[in-house]
Amino acid sequence: MTAITEATPPVSHKEARRAVLSSFVGTAIEWYDFFIYGTAAALVIGPQFFPGASTFAGTLAAFATFAVGFIARPIGGVVMGHFGDRIGRKSMLVLSLTMMGAATVGIGLLPNFEAIGVAAPILLVALRFVQGIGVGGEWGGAVLMATEHAPEGKRGLYGAAPQMGVPAGVIMANVVFLAVTQLLSDDAFQTWGWRVPFLMSAVLVGVAMWIRLGVFESPAFAEAKESDTIVKMPIVEVLTRNWRTVLLAAGTFIATNGIAYVFMVYVLTYGTKELGYSRATMLTLLIVACPVWMAGMAVSAWKSDVLGRRRVYTWSSIALVIVAAVFFPLIDTASIPVMLLAMIVMAAVLGTTAGPQSALFAELFPAHIRYSGASLGYQIGAILGGGLAPFMATWLFEAFGTSTAVTAYFVVIAVVSLVSILLLPETNTKRREAEAA
Predict the structure, then answer these.
(1) Cα 160–28–249 angle (5° rounding)?
(2) C-beta of residue 290 within 8 angstroms of C-beta of residue 167
(3) Distances from the Cα of 179 to the Cα of 26, 200, 234, 279, 304, angstroms
(4) Is the four-CA dihedral 5, 161, 78, 225 of positive or negative sign?
(5) Inter-CA distances, 401 with 263, 279, 408, Å
(6) What is the pLDDT of residue 183?
(7) pLDDT at 329
(8) CA spacing 20 to 30 A to 185: which of 5, 120, 148, 352?
């Protein structure tokens, strides 16, 4: 198990700020693209592309296509990780943003089942797959651009920028969907209004591309290239020498990602179909909780620079086990204040688990294989976590007729992530040296 030990070459404050801004904005927009599909899957994809199915079967099919994006993510992580470790981080981030934007606009323009028959769901799956490849290469590159530009002792704080882009993307996606559902009649929304958030991606991607093109290449990659440590097949070295680290890193992410996607996607369906609330109500609850999520990320990332990644991640994971056990019982009260409390507390705890993750994953691998190693660990965790979670939650509730089964699923994956972080070493060099002393 190899942890990072080299110091990042110094860069100017202006360069570092631009890299952090690029990581935040680019990640927010990529995840806006990825999340609007999740929101659409919960609200409209079933009837549009799987109209012959029952409500349950249509929702399950919509969430199954949602999962396709996660299946594609390791492919994007491996391919872009390979070239990111060989030719640079920046070029892969530009490519990932282009792929994501093109696929998202394509979904917005795609005719539904009524117009072109079975070709509609086939093309939908293909475009969702492209989305998955794009976002699969995004996280690793954005994290490395932020952490590798960070001043000494601030990798955790700088690494929080791309993490905070995730809830920022959720806020954008749900604000746009909320606006569309409020401004249009239900018929207009079902007919054409749901396409608007997808088509808006063209403008947002253009803004992110302008910022991203102005960022210099990562100094750690430049140093690795100059010292001739670039390897021909980074993924081979990752899988042969660092496979245990990859699996444990993935394990730490299963609960954070899985519970987050149920929190962001499945709860919308659950609140409207099982509790009888409107789409607007459920979207508003989620939007209000997201800033707390971002705040949790910032605070825990900052504390990880002082207390250590492993310590902060461990305590956050313990808190997640506890909150996972009470989340759905609180949601099931169907009381808006109690539901809002449950959403805010869950958002805060999810934020504290995600905050140290960027620096942790980056520091687990040396610079010449870091893009490949960090991306692969993250994307495997994403498949086992968020890729399965909405589908599993839908199936478990249908099979058992109670949210208790979903709660049990939450607790199990939270324990898996807790055990995984306990098996990883401390990666914060200063903290590790202090503990040794």
Answers:
(1) 45
(2) yes
(3) 23, 13, 45, 11, 37
(4) negative
(5) 19, 22, 13
(6) 87
(7) 94
(8) 120
What sign for the dihedral angle of Cα 227, 233, 239, 240? negative
How is residue 336 written in tokens? Answer: 């808006």
Measured CA to CA, the distance from residue 147 to residue 140 in angstroms comes to: 11
Residue 392 and residue 408: Cα distance in Å, rounded? 11
> For residues 15-39, b (16+ Cβ closer than 10 Å) or e, as one string?
ebebbbbbbbbbbbbbbbbbbbbbb
Helix axes 119-148, 219-226, angle to 10 degrees: 80
Token pair, residue 375, equals 């991306």
Rounded Cα distance between 165 and 149, Å, is 17
Distance CA(237)–CA(437), nearest Å, equals 32
Q: Under a CB-based contact definition with an 8 Å cutoff, are residues 47 and 190 in contact?
A: yes
Query: Which pair of structure tokens corresponds to residue 123?
Result: 């093309």
State the amino acid at position 385 in one-letter form: G
Q: For position 436, what pLDDT does the model report? A: 55
* Separation between Cα atoms, residue 115 and residue 117, nearest integer Å: 6
Q: Could you tell me which of 395, 260, 419 has the C-alpha nearest to residue 324? A: 260
Task: Provide the greatest CA pair distance for the chain.
Answer: 69
Number of H helices, E strands in the chain: 22, 0
Give the model's confidence band at 11: pLDDT under 50 very low, under 70 low, under 90 confident, else very high: low
β strands within 390-431, DSSP E: none
CA quadruple 89, 95, 98, 103: dihedral positive or negative?
A: negative
Tell me the residue ranges of DSSP E strands in 222-341.
Answer: none
Residue 87: alpha-carbon gap to chain centroid:
25
338 Cα distance to chain centroid = 26
pTM of the model: 0.79
Contact 137, 81 (CB under 8 A): yes
